[in-house]
Amino acid sequence: MERCDVLIVGLGPAGGAAALAAARAGLRVLAVERRQNIGRPVQCAEYVPLSLGAMAQRTGAEIQRVHGMRTVLPSGAETENAFPGLMIDRERFDAGLARAAQEAGAEVLTGCRFLGLDRENALAYCRDGGGEKTVAYRVLIAADGPASPVAAAIGLTRLDVVLARQIVVPLIKKMNWTEVFLSGDYPGGYAWLFPRGERANLGIGVERRAAGRLGELLRALHQRMSEEGRVGGTVLLRSGGAIPVGGPRPELVVGNVLFAGDAAGLTHPVTGAGIHPAVVSGELAGKAAVMRLSGREGALRDYAGEVRELFGASLARAVRRRREAQGPGDGAMRRSWVAFREYWEERTG
Ligand SMILES: Cc1cc2nc3c(=O)[nH]c(=O)nc-3n(C[C@H](O)[C@H](O)[C@H](O)COP(=O)(O)OP(=O)(O)OC[C@H]3O[C@@H](n4cnc5c(N)ncnc54)[C@H](O)[C@@H]3O)c2cc1C
Question: Is there an atom of ligand 1 within 6 Å of 149 CB?
């Protein structure tokens, strides 16, 4: 049996940040990641706000800067907003964070899958190439993404998600902005073209009920973009994934189990931006574990409070906008997308 102070399940940005924070404080940290290679395959459009700039630099993940976001409405009308940020290499970002955690003393096990939990005895069951292992933990941080096997093991409800598909394509005309396409064809989601130097991420996310059409929609979008001479016709890479869109899960803490990042439902339900909240909540979860294990009784409860205070209002607004009746026209889209004044206005009466 392995023993640790803090067991971290999943080494995306939330798990990496949690492992780093807890290991830096001297705790015995074990982080398990089911993938053999941290960060690979990349399932992300790779945009982060400038606030993650220092971390992107430290991990060698910065690819290029973007100054703004262009939004294309169903009518074809375009609008541009200042949305300064960075395009990053997600694999380098996630791997760099995990490496920093290792350097701070965390033990990292890749190719190791969390299987189940005996919460009463604070035991987790995992399996890697060497077989099954039992891990005795004092605090467990679930940073295991939108499907959160830890949440499932506890019996918590599954998070509502949007499903996405993405291709990496050659970028013919360089861009220093991100581009978003709103359309009735993309219910509950949108399409994007995000630059990465000489390549671009081209993707679409939609509600589950429309997911069967994702392949066809993405092919049509790719064809249109290549006919317009903006991207090349070759597909360099394919990926996809799920994006939580229902807001924070009601239980951010269950006993001595904390949820962070996508596992906690912290991704923005309208934009799908989840790297920043994953890093912030991961770090807070790591620090909460440190405080709890140094004797502060309410530290884990305080974690839930801090997360809600930081992200609650913005996530609640985004959830409301998604729920409101939507239509295919520009007007309805303006109310449901962050680039427009209508999104931020509260209607009275
Ligand atoms: C197509 C797409 C595009 C996106 N684009 C952006 C974007 O441009 N900007 C942005 O900010 N956000 C974007 N997001 C969202 C962003 O990727 C997530 O919010 C972010 O990855 C959340 O980080 P996390 O650490 O919480 O979870 P994850 O990154 O999902 O990490 C969870 C980790 O847990 C591991 N794991 C799962 N189950 C187990 C298990 N049983 N045992 C061990 N390990 C396990 C997984 O392998 C994974 O490595 C996008 C998402 C998708 C799907």
Answer: yes
